[in-house]
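Ticket 4471: requesting a sanity check on a complex prediction with protoporphyrin IX containing FE. Repro inputs:
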Amino acid sequence: MGVPMPSEVKSSERQFEVQWDPHDPAEANTYPEVVAAIREQCPVTWSTGRWSVHDSGFWLMTRYKDVRAAGLDWKLYSSAGGAAPLQFDLEVFRNGFLETDPPLHTKMREAVTPFFLAPALEQHEDGIRKIIDELIDEAVAASPVDFVETYALSLPSRIFFELFLHEDPEEIRFTIDIVRGLLKDMASAAELAPKLQAWCAVAIQKRKDRGERDDMVGVIAHMGSDDFPVTDEMRIETLMLLIMAGMETTANGLGAVIHTFATNPDARREMANATPDQITKAVDEFLRFSSPVPAAGRTLTEDTVVHGCPMKKGERVTLNWLSANHDPEVFPNPDVLDLSRNASQHLAFGVGYHKCLGMHLAKREMRLTIEALSKLRVFELVPGAEINYRNGPARGLMSLPVICAR
Ligand code: HEM
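Returned structure tokens:
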């Protein structure tokens, strides 16, 4: 659909109806405008678009207040039926604890949480800086270069595989291709999921055989107790979630930074002279503005009524983080990227029990990237380059041809 017209307002129970498909590639570039138009006309909308291969018809929430309230109410808005806006087959592939509810969710999450908190991340700071430097060296040597492919997509995967999983670099190439394919479309997901499952099973088994419990995979391999029984399938799903959740998501957050820097020299200069607090603030604004994970899916566990819309048990609801992050009631002039804005209440990482586990890692990667790129002598978009977006569970730049020099 394009921007919905007032004539699409219904007088029936479903007050406002649109045909909106969350992953429509044709709408990747205009996604923010389309959801803004829906938000302005009706806070809760019925979309006749698809939410899985077989199913269509779902509620779409777009205003900050409603999206936040629903995200916090996990009992009513359950993640156990899947948390993707366009849901893949949970029999083939379940996104670990992201697609479960408490208490099971929380026990599994707690087991791996320490690896994503400040003390653990502090130890990776030098390693992250080293990878950033290497990738910038590669980009400078290859300039003009696609900075999305060379940098934004490579950084999160190298950090995760090298620093968190301690895996052989040769293994990295093979698994990264799988992860990218999995995020591309549902057909790829069905085909590639077993390959990543098999890879995770071997990594877990290795830790079990050696009795290794110290690193993240070792903790996953040994998690569980009598009152918290864990199957091998749950272990594999947990590792798959951790591998996949931070790749394209972070790449798209980095994409917002590199796009701004390549097209707005003043913003890059401003960041070169910024204090650490100002950079932290800017990271939140980049996240709010770009909202790299635009939406999440939930399933209603009871009938409810929101803004007069009668929502039924079992129906699907999409919480649109991107739209909420552009709600003018909370963020004045929401479509302006203002690096001095206090945007810390954004919902780019979700809210409540499922709030992003990797948020501090992602923010660190963005902060260190801002620091490194603002020191470059040259960082400019190749003149005439076209900017296009990809849609999917994560939305971001397809490519960004850049001229760069140290
Ligand atoms: C800019 C980068 C990132 C963004 C925008 C992002 C966004 C999100 C969002 C919106 C959710 C909540 C989904 C829901 O409620 O259904 C989430 C959950 C999650 N994210 Fe991230 N994420 C990012 C990076 C990362 C990284 C680096 C990791 C590290 C592995 C990660 C791991 C996770 C995990 C494990 C969950 C599930 C949490 C739970 O269910 O308790 N994310 N993320």
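Notes from triage: Residues 2-9 have pLDDT under 50 and may be disordered. Leaving this open until the requester confirms.
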